[in-house]
Structure formats: C-alpha cells, structure tokens
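ok so I'm stuck.
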Amino acid sequence: MTTGHIFIATSLDGFIASPDGTIDWLIQHTNPDEDHGYDAFMAQIDVIVMGRGTYQTVLAFDPWPYALPVVVLSRSLAAEEVPTHLAGQVRITALPPRAVMAGLAAEGYKRAYIDGGQIIQAFLRDGLIADMVITRVPVLIGSGRSLFGPLDGTDIALRHLQTQSFPSGLVQSRYQIAG
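replied:
not stuck anymore, here's the structure
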C-alpha cells in the first residue's frame, strides 16, 4: 500500500488557514530564505493527494507549484475539467481515501504527500498516515480551518521523533504514527 505523509504548517492556535481558506498569515510570518526541510521532504514523495480546498488555493498560484502528479479528492469537482495547462498532471476523483491509496499502489506509487485539512483528517481516521511534520508558526489567528478534527472516539497515538526550532521562531515537530 502507498504510505501517506504530512508536511504542514499551523498557527500556534492550530489553524492551517483563515476562515475563508486563505494562508496570508503563513506567508506574512515565515521567512522564505529559511530552510524548513520542505524540499528534502518532497524529494522522498512520488505523488500528491489533496482536497478540493487546497487544490483551489494552489490553482491560483503562478506558476503551478508541483512537478509531481496530483490527485484531487472531491465529490463536487469530479465532473469538472482539469485546466488545459495541468492536463496529465492533475486528476480529480471522488473515491474514498482507502481506494485512492490502493489505486496509487497499483500504479507503483510508494509515498504520497497528503495535503488539506479535511483530507488529512480523513486519512488519519482511516489509518493511512505513516508520519507527520508539523511546523508551528508563532502567530495566533483566532479562528480558521483546524488541522485536526473529530476522531470518532479513537485516539491516534503518536511517537515523537524530533523537534527543531528556527531563528524565525518557527517550531517543527516530527511524529510517527504509533501502531
């Protein structure tokens, strides 16, 4: 089975985006010249799996930020055409997480970067995440889209691997899903 991996930033109060889905606070409070390990993380990834909200956010980026294939999980976008300039690189599916990962494994993909709050939550609930890198940005935004949500009464035990702080004040922790 393809393994799922998370690399994400949150505000100190646990939000990955503002209520409207924007990430302006992240851009304003991070130093683009500081290496937080994203490139090293991406060098180990074969494919990206993201939700509709994340897709719609990065779709506005110019240029498109990914060289790897992207799978977008969305029931509302399933019939929508992928923009011409992304044809062959982006596909949209309404399949559930477990079926997506089984399909990726059948295609030979080994490691998937899982991105987007609700998608991360669904993959965690289904036991499809192997490890997480969570970077906390020293800003409180008060409300927004939470990284973690309800777990349906099942705790997910984590094993702390490492925590690193950066001169900018960012604190990055690495966790492995235990068991």
